[in-house]
């Protein structure tokens, strides 16, 4: 083996030191945007019980038809009304070894989509008066969430940039470039749940419903390469 080759092999066998990484500054920005909902989903249900399964189902179906007719009279088009759940389940006399079926519960749940939030209370009242004995709640939402999501992300980035500038100034460094920007998530949640309750009978007092506001939250994380100030 020549002397030059021996030196080359020795160099190659030496452990390679990791390449030093440039100093970075990592910041997280959060934002909350409020939006007025423009759509509501109302879920009304019927539960009927009978010793005969077919009878329980027929009773529930009959009330469901009454509810659909009542809601249509309020001004809701049929395309915005759909059956959300149909369940027929046995009811047992006990949980012991002599367990046997004594009756059947039939459940029919109707979902109503409303563009006119001013008639939410009217729809609830009409459904309860027509025989519904369950109100699963009212969900307020946005038909198009994209503009609010984008606004929340922009504000989160602006907050992160502001934090980065403040920290860089305190550390006496400059922000050189953005190495990475990652979305931490965007969530759309109701800020106010106006009406969520189970009802067994229709109240003579009109149901008050207020849509409130929807909150859109966004989080972003940005990594900056930093350099010393000249």
Q: Name the shape in a single word.
A: elongated
Structural class: alpha+beta
Uncertain segments: 192-202
Radius of gyration: 31 Å
What's the number of structural domains? 2
Question: What is the CATH superfamily of the largest domain?
Answer: Protein of unknown function (DUF541), domain 1
What is the CATH topology of the largest domain?
Translation Initiation Factor IF3
Helix content: 25-40%
Arithmetic mean pLDDT: 86
Query: Regarding CATH, which class of the largest domain?
Result: Alpha Beta
Distance between the termini: 51 Å
CATH architecture of the largest domain: 2-Layer Sandwich
Written account of the structure:
By secondary structure, the protein is of the alpha+beta class. The chain has 2 domains: 22-37 and 143-230, 2-Layer Sandwich (Translation Initiation Factor IF3); 39-141, Alpha-Beta Plaits (2-Layer Sandwich). It is 30% helix and 40% strand. It contains 4 helices and 7 strands; from the N terminus they run αββαββαβαββ. It has helices at residues 3-13, 53-74, 120-129, 146-171, and strands at 24-35, 39-50, 81-92, 101-114, 134-141, 173-190, 214-228. The strands form 2 sheets. It has a 4-stranded antiparallel beta sheet, covered by helices on one side. Strand 3 and strand 4 form a beta hairpin. It is elongated, with a radius of gyration of 31 Å.
